[in-house]
Amino acid sequence: CDGIDVRKIKKESLRRTLGMVLQDTHLFTGTVLENIRYGRLDASDEECIEAAREASADSFISRLPEGYHTVITGDGANLSQGQRQLIAIARAYVADPEVMILDEATSSVDTRTERLVQQGMKALMEGRTVFVIAHRLSTVRNANAIMVIEHGEIIERGDHDELIARQGRYYQLHQGITRLE
Q1: Which phi and psi angles does 88 have, rounded to 5°?
Q2: What is the pTM of this model?
Q3: Beta bridge partners of 153
Q4: Would strands 129-133 and 146-150 be described as parallel, antiparallel, or unpaired?
Q5: Which residue among 91, 101, 115, 178 has its CA within the 20 to 30 Å range from the CA of 6?
């Protein structure tokens, strides 16, 4: 979008520009606060807590035995998948990258938790370029541009309403007529 060839950008600079929330969330042994701060090591406690609020994670964190000072063990084994996702979103939020990649961020959570994760993702997406990789079409419904990729090729492009009106592959997926492969 800005005309800069990504191959000419130093890896260190590129890494600072990109943030990711993946389907498989990786947490570290340490407190909830430390896991959020991993997004930006110089973030204050207040910035981490604000990030958790924006990510819709504050309510569950506040109910943990030690709140933000609760120790997460074994890659988050003492948390649900949805709670791990919300912490990952808070981590990405505190990092404040220009570009976000959200890879199947809601695929492993139940419908109720999906709403919370989507609220957190909505705050995270505000004011930045976001690439969303999703099989649940509800995740991309409000995107400015949706690209349907099949076998590595973009076969359709548009917003939700445009793609529905075309009644192509996106429409079929939306209607449940076909399955994703």
Answers
A1: -65, -40
A2: 0.77
A3: 150
A4: unpaired
A5: 91
Q: Give the CB-side neighbour count of residue 28, counting CA atoms within 13 A.
A: 9
pLDDT tens digits in sequence order for the chain, 181 residues long: 466 777 788 888 877 788 888 888 889 999 999 999 999 999 999 999 999 999 889 999 999 999 999 999 877 888 988 899 899 999 999 999 988 888 876 666 677 777 777 777 777 788 888 888 877 777 778 788 888 888 989 999 999 999 999 999 999 988 887 555 4
Vertex 24: Cα angle to 47 and 137 (nearest 5): 95
Give the amino acid at 10: K
Please name each of the domains of the chain with its CATH number: 6-143 (3.40.50.300)
The Cβ of residue 142 has, within 10 Å, a number of other Cβ atoms equal to 12
Q: In Å, how far are 79, 142, 145 from 124, measured between CA atoms? A: 22, 14, 17
What residue type is 105 in one-letter code?
A: A
Residues 6+ apart with CB under 8 A from 83: 57, 60, 76
Residue given tokens 């807590």 in the structure block: 49
Per the DSSP assignment, residues forming a β-bridge with 99 are 18, 129
Question: Could you tell me the two tokens for 111?
Answer: 């419908």
